[in-house]
Write a structure and sequence with these properties.
- The protein is an alpha+beta fold and about 220 residues long.
- The chain has one domain: L-fuculose-1-phosphate Aldolase, CATH 3.40.225.
- It has eight helices and eight strands.
- α2 packs parallel to α5 and α3 packs across α6.
- The longest helix has 24 residues.
Length: about 220
């Protein structure tokens, strides 16, 4: 059976191969009991090994496992886990299409069912200087009520009950951004109404999909 660290490395590779980060950008983490495993600073997502990951004590924020230095957004990850005990994974990407749309001032809204099915509650955080405690506090506060967060001039952050759910969320956001740009190029986007969103969420197929996602590894 794969360990949490092995799974986190696997998802780091998936994120890199999906083009959701460039170079050493972005950071991911997963919680295992009282330990939060994080991407080390300066490592590309697809260059990590389980031994490279940094184990941080959730309560104290001190590093208790690993020799590498943790991501510079360590406080952002820890802050989110502290306010969301249900969360087991936090994935932060710098995906080009989503980051561009979010920063343009155009609101990223639901045009297709996947946006409604997979992203959970969405919200936007205005620009805050990266790696600062102010950003960590702002993201933790937003994560109390949101599962997928759009970060102006920065990127995307998604939480999940498991790594699969967090990964699907960052992938779907990027796909939604591409679709929005395409719609704007050839015409005018049509977004779902709240009534249409509610109808999608009420479908048995969507409820089953959500249950399967919540029970994934």
């Amino acid at each position: 059976m794969a360990s949490v660290r092995e799974d986190l490395v696997k998802y780091g590779m998936k994120i890199a191969h999906a083009g959701l980060v460039a170079g050493a950008g972005g950071n991911i983490s997963a919680r295992e009991g009282d330990i939060v495993w994080m991407k080390p600073s300066g490592f590309a997502m697809d260059d990590m090994t389980p031994e490279d990951l940094c184990g941080m004590d959730l309560a104290t924020g001190k590093q208790v496992k690993g020799k590498s230095k943790p991501t510079s957004e360590v406080n952002m990850h820890l802050g989110i886990y502290r306010v969301r005990p249900d969360v087991k994974a936090v994935f932060h990407t710098h995906s080009a299409w989503a980051s561009g749309v979010i920063t343009s001032g155009v609101e990223l809204r639901a045009m297709f069912a996947e946006f409604v099915n997979d992203l959970g509650r969405t919200g936007t955080v205005p620009y805050v200087t990266p790696t600062t405690q102010r950003l960590a506090d702002a993201m933790a506060d937003k994560a109390k009520t949101c599962d997928t967060i759009f970060m102006v001039n920065h990127g995307v952050l998604a939480v999940g009950l498991n790594m699969t759910q967090a990964y699907y969320r960052v992938v779907v956001v990027e796909d939604a951004a591409k679709s929005l740009v395409a719609a704007c190029v050839v015409g005018k986007p049509r977004f779902f109404t709240q009534k249409e969103i509610d109808e999608i969420l009420s479908l048995d197929a969507v409820k089953h999909r959500t249950k399967m996602m919540e029970n994934a590894k």
